[in-house]
Amino acid sequence: MLPSMTRARGIGVFLLGVALALPQSVLPSAQASVPCGEIANGLRLSLDVDYNAHELLFYIQNVSDRTQVVDLGHNSIPVQLTVTLTTKDGKVRDSELGMSSAMHAMGAGIHEDFVEILPKGMYRIRRAMDDFTPLPAAMEQVRVFPLTALKSGDLMTGNLRGKGPKCWTGDSRQHQICWEGQLVSNTVQVN
Fold first, then answer.
1. d(CA 48, CA 51)
2. What is the residue-wise DSSP string for 141-174?
């Protein structure tokens, strides 16, 4: 085998290893045709449901020509992502459903969860429905999992609220302006 072919194969194996080592909660995804909400400051949000895995799939799409740095939350939990649930009879829940980073604290203190989304790129975030609880969730309350009791015809809409104005980038070399704003996804009707 030629040295150049061996080197190319080695690089391919290395890149595959890097891809497999990425966190499962936030993965770069190939550009896909998915229904999204309105564009806000160059980003838009999509929500989908994996009924087999009982998970929600969020897609954050960067439609701008520059890298967007997005703050998703704390302790590797995307607490900035919430879901608005509307029952099939048209009643909106008292509060949004979200996740608590305090219940998943790791290491010493809280660390931010920033992702850099390349121009025209997209990130996919998979989260179990069991992770979503009513907000604000008091620590002393018994946890309930309302998304596990969804009924056919219920409606879900995803939300992402950007913090800012500055955050630490993943390469740890400099501060950059974070994306700021509020994204609202498409509305998904439960099967």
1. 10
2. SPP--GGGG--TT-EEEEEEEE--SEEE-TTSS-
